[in-house]
Amino acid sequence: MEERARAAAEASRAKTSDSDTLQQNYVTPGLAGQQISTVDNSRTFAPNIACQKTATMLEVLVQPASSGDLGKVTVARDTDLDGTVDSTANLSVPVSGICANGIVSCQPGTWNGCSFYRWDVDTAKALKLTSVDMPKLAGCYCLNNSCGTNLAWGNMASVLRDLGGGMIGALTTADPRYGVAEAVIDGPSIRYVGAQSTACSANPDLPQTAYRANPATIASDAYAASTGNSVFQALKGSAIGTGTALAFRHCSIERRVTVLKPGAEDIISRTAGGYSTIQNGSSFDFLMGSPADNSLAGGSCTLIDFRMTLHVSEPDRIVDARLARFFADDWAQVRIDGQLIGSGPSAWTSLGLPPGKCELKKTFYAYPNLDLRTFLTAGDHEIWLRVAVAEGGEGFAQVHVDVDNSCKTLEQVVDGCGAIAADPQCKLDSELVDGVQTWINGVATGLRPLPQTRVLGGPSCPTQLTRDFYLKDRTYRCAVDDIAKPDTSRGAYVIDHSTETLLADRTRQSDGSYATSTRAFSLPDRGSVAACEPVCKTRAPKANSEAAPDGVVGAKQNVPVGYDTFFHACTADNQCPADPGEEVVSACGCLDDFPEAVVMMQTVRLAGADMVCTGSVQ
């Protein structure tokens, strides 16, 4: 049996060992309607998987000039795939460089005055060149004498493949019905064998190819097709289709936003005492005392108290609060919640009589501009003005407060799905995010809503708010009654208790008990295999002719020559089949160049990243 398996593997390997062999034995004859033989060559058959086929879908003939440019490029096509070439044209410009999707045309033999062209297809499905900026081209390189000598003739095969590949890419993108079966290089020409193998329709705008432009529609189209298919729905609703008894649970995640515009008096207000409140927009002046001249009568020295209560509702909206000024005839002290914050005309800290002669026969004025915000926390606060008067006098204090009474947004995300999502028996079945279907039938559609800007608060307080979502409407599919599952305990016992030489088993008896047994067991000799497929690594010199918007790469380097690296599978006698011009870097063996590959990929990735900040004009 092992010999038969090895023989079958070798026969299959002989026909599918690499891409060239696979193309030669299956792809090309399959698309061209030629004979294909089975793996063991016992039978042959002619498949017919292409609607139309031609030996010359596209042929490109080039003629290098003495300047190194491709002076003449002739393009011949069989546009209707009937086997006859019906269109021939020459490029109107010389080719100084080749890109994956276009060409570069410069002054012959130089890289000056260059124009850049991309391969396109016109309305008649004919190839054309469209003038573009160089960043819209990919993989460009130079091939005329400004980059080296004899580059076109010396690398004719790759030049033809790159030039023709750009044309084929434009043709198959414009008309996805057609495919390329084979590319044949003959001297300075390349010929593509083509076939139409998709839908067999005369119309290139096929529903089957529409998903290439918009892959996200596959999910919704598949759902629409399944809902109209009675067989699919029958299977879906069967015990096998569901596997469990299901309950659908609906919930939502909502962003609730409230816009408030408080009145200034809702932030701070005078609730007791004082004699006046002067409001100017969002500013308050709270006045207390008896400021009229000699409005207070005293004896030799009389203490008179004035108390004012301020209620603070939103301390975080108080922008500024200060003891603006106070005055008295004769003495005064100001306290807030019992703490002394000002006195005059000199220091007076006790609750008793002033520390000097009571009668001063004049009025003193103080402008402390003292910050009171640390005192004005949420709640009630008492401002206390004490005046010492001999004979006649007066007293006054002013507290100035600025508040922010602008619109305020209160935002809250109410998650009504948290408990359901945390249940391991529940899976998301469908989801609508602000009207966009992001999940359907348990499959993500790939669609996401754009951030939305809403105007909230009404005419009195319009507020713009931009958020990723406002409402997620979800349906979860929850398993509530699992169908009886098969008993796998016997298999688990065999696996857990057997060894390479002993097979253990446990069987259930008619009375419900279990009987265990063991017997000798051995695996056949599995033979030995090589640790790896021996490969070798080679390199060959090449001119650095790659081109970028700033010019040819080699012109910016001290040594304008690099190397191409190749890996070859070694022969049966462990020899490296290096091609002419290649130098062996690593001999045959189990090579591991993974670290080098990672470094190369990181280099390419980081080379495309910004090296300076581009968030603002520099």
TrEMBL record:
Residues 1-24 are annotated as: Disordered. It comes from the Bacteria. Residues 1-18 have a biased composition (Basic and acidic residues). This is Conjugal transfer mating pair stabilization protein TraN. It comes from Edaphosphingomonas haloaromaticamans.
